[in-house]
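User: quick one, sequence for these C-alpha cells?
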C-alpha cells in the first residue's frame, strides 16, 4: 500500500499510490494502439468513369474544352467561334458523350470579370460539374 509506519520522527508518513495511475495509462495506450490503424490515410481521388457510349472517338475524349472570353464580348470554344445565345447548347452537345464534365474558362486581360462570371454561369447551367480558370501565369507555365 502507500503508507509507511515508523521512521525517525515517530509519526505516520503517507506516500502517493501511483499503481492505479499507471494502470489507467496502460489501458489508454492500448486503446490508442488499437484505434490508430483504423484511421483513414491517403488522399481523395477521382477515378475516371467509363462513358455510356463505348464507340466514342479518342479525339473527343482527350480534347480539353476551353471557353475563351475575348475583348468585345466575343466567345470561342477551342478556337471555334461561338455566341452567348448558343454557348449553352453547344456545350451540352460537346459534353453529352463525355463522362468527365470538366471545362476551363480563359478571359483576356481587358475583359471584365462579369463577362467571365456570365460564361461560368452558362457552363454550370449546361451541366458541367467542374469549371476551372486559366490565368496568364498558368498559361505561361508558372
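Assistant:
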Amino acid at each position: 500500500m502507500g503508507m509507511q509506519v515508523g521512521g525517525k520522527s515517530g509519526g505516520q508518513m503517507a506516500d502517493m499510490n501511483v499503481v492505479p495511475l499507471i494502470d489507467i495509462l496502460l489501458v489508454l495506450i492500448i486503446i490508442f494502439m488499437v484505434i490508430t490503424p483504423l484511421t483513414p490515410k491517403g488522399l481523395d481521388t477521382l477515378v475516371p468513369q467509363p462513358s455510356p457510349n463505348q464507340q466514342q472517338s479518342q479525339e473527343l475524349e482527350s480534347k480539353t474544352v476551353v471557353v475563351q472570353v475575348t475583348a468585345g464580348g466575343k466567345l470561342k470554344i477551342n478556337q471555334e467561334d461561338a455566341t452567348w445565345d448558343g454557348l449553352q447548347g453547344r456545350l451540352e452537345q460537346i459534353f453529352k458523350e463525355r463522362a468527365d464534365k470538366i471545362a476551363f474558362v480563359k478571359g483576356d486581360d481587358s475583359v471584365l470579370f462579369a463577362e467571365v462570371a456570365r460564361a461560368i454561369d452558362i457552363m454550370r447551367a449546361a451541366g458541367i460539374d467542374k469549371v476551372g480558370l486559366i490565368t496568364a501565369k498558368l498559361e505561361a507555365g508558372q
